[in-house]
Amino acid sequence: MDLPDKQEVIDYITEVVETTLKQTKAAFERSRQDSIEAESRMQSRYDTQGIEAAYLADAFAMKIPNLKKQLYVISTLKIPNNNGTIGLCSIVGIKEMESNKASNYIIMPAGGGEEIKYKGICFTVLTPHAPRGFAMIGKQEGDTFKLEIDNKNIEYMIEQVA
Known about the structure:
The chain has a six-stranded mixed sheet with strand order 3-4-2-1-6-5. It has two domains: 6-75; 91-161, Roll (Chitinase A, domain 3). Helix 1 (6-36) runs antiparallel to helix 2. It is α+β, with helices and mostly antiparallel strands and 162 residues long. It is 40% helix and 23% strand.
């Protein structure tokens, strides 16, 4: 399997974050409106619909600045030429040595943990600060690295770097 062009993947991630930001803003407005509308006000002392809508609005409000920051970081990113060495913006295909389970990652400065599917390939966004991302930085195709997960050392091989 060939890994896609990193600029295309980063453009796709930017679109996903923009869409998520728009949806989150809309959900915040709906929740905020629900929390102040008359029908959401307490009908009895057991009715908590308005309070629940306010909590939901607060949760969306906290997510919006993070999405804005992520969008800014990704959209202003200069894609380096890593010459086959894993670094920022690298797309990496690895496999677990014992189970042969393959995984694909893209190393980004923000958005760690997000999972995206692009052209039929699933990627997990890793930051260089994540244990797996940190372990891969500076490695090249064919290199191996170990991670301790649940008190067990697991060895991985880097199969592809783009």
